[in-house]
Amino acid sequence: MIAAILLSSNFKTPLDPLTSIIIMGIFGAAALIGGAIMRDRRVRLLKTGIKVEGTVFSIEYEPRSQSNSSGGQYYPIIRYVTTDGE
To answer: Dihedral, CA atoms, 42, 43, 44, 46, nearest 10 degrees?
Structure first.
């Protein structure tokens, strides 16, 4: 389907359609492999990790790094006690 769209597109690109298809295929394969690796890490953590209870201690705000843009990001500060009591 993507190949048909790229081959029939009126969009002018400096690359020929076959090169575009190959590049998009490489990006797609990389995304698929990266997703599989992240899923494997998550499954391994869920199987071998130790679960502890946490408490949201506060919500922090971090403004964007550019000085002329508005907005930012909120993130929680979580406190928890390990099985060793730390």
So the answer is: 90
13-39 pLDDT, tens digit each: 567 788 888 999 999 999 999 999 999
For residues 4 and 7, what is the distance between their CA atoms, to the nearest angstrom? 5
Say how many C-beta atoms besides its own lie within 10 A of residue 24's C-beta.
13
Rounded distance between C-alpha atoms, residue 19 and residue 1, angstroms: 16
- Predicted model pTM: 0.52
DSSP state for residue 39 in the 8-state scheme: H
User: Whose CA is closest to 63, among 73, 48, 51, 77?
Assistant: 73
